[in-house]
């Protein structure tokens, strides 16, 4: 069974929180960091992974993403602080090997 993830990205000043869903967290974070797509995270320089949750099913992840997106910033900050109170880049030290 393939894992899925809900994840948060932010910029260097932590002023923007992007919420996304993916079935390949490593690849998706790499895409954000290299600005592979000219969307929201490109526009707001969101290249820091600050939170993620893992799921066994993509449908569960999508439901959770919608639930989180329906909340306010304070709720998102609460989730971040629960596992990453200093808002460190959780992908620091990850090796990205993509062609």
Automatic annotation (TrEMBL):
SUPFAM superfamilies according to UniProt: GIY-YIG endonuclease
Pfam families: GIY-YIG (PF01541)
Gene3D superfamilies in UniProt: GIY-YIG endonuclease
Segments forming domain GIY-YIG: 2-78
Top-level taxon of the source organism: Bacteria
InterPro entries, per the entry: GIY-YIG_endonuc, GIY-YIG_endonuc_sf, UPF0213_domain
Family under the similarity heading: Belongs to the UPF0213 family.
Protein name per the record: GIY-YIG nuclease family protein
């Amino acid at each position: 069974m393939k894992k899925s993830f809900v994840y948060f990205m932010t910029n260097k000043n932590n002023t923007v929180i992007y919420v996304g869903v993916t079935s390949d967290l490593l690849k998706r974070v790499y895409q954000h960091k290299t600005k592979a797509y000219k969307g929201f995270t490109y526009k707001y320089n969101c290249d820091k992974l600050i939170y993620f949750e893992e799921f066994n099913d993509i449908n569960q992840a999508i439901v959770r993403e919608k639930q989180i997106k329906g909340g306010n910033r304070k709720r998102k900050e609460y989730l971040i602080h629960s596992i990453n109170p200093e808002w460190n880049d959780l992908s620091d030290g990850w090796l990205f090997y993509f062609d």
